[in-house]
Amino acid sequence: MFPHRLKSLRKNSELTQEGLGKLIDVSKVSISGYENGNRSPDTETLKKLADTFNVSIDFLLGRTDNPDGVVNIHFDGGKGLHVEDEDEEAYLREQLAQYRKMKERMRKRLEEDRK
């Protein structure tokens, strides 16, 4: 599952194996090995890949089909996470959107700095 997900994410991001390797400080050969299933990344590399593609490690490894890493807090039919009111929910959604934009800007800046 991991090789397929990695290759798909890389291609959807229009990155070459070499380009992805530069972003996460590994060789093109390593990326090729990961995508072919001949090599497995270490924990730190998995973290870098997840951050680069803004997905969870569980998604990369095929443990979930939910790429964003958001955990649903429903358990045995429970109601899940409760927010006090619509204003609180709107505020939390706005904060999350701002965080994701900032994270993407930082990823792009890091990518530019490594060129």
From TrEMBL:
Keyword terms of this UniProt record: DNA-binding
UniProt-listed SUPFAM superfamilies: lambda repressor-like DNA-binding domains
Any Pfam family the entry gives: HTH_3
Classification via Gene3D superfamilies: lambda repressor-like DNA-binding domains
Annotated ranges, domain HTH cro/C1-type: 6-60
InterPro entries: Cro/C1-type_HTH, Lambda_DNA-bd_dom_sf
GO MF annotation list: DNA binding
SMART domains: HTH_XRE (SM00530)
Protein name: HTH cro/C1-type domain-containing protein
Phylogenetic lineage: Bacteria, Bacillati, Bacillota, Bacilli, Bacillales
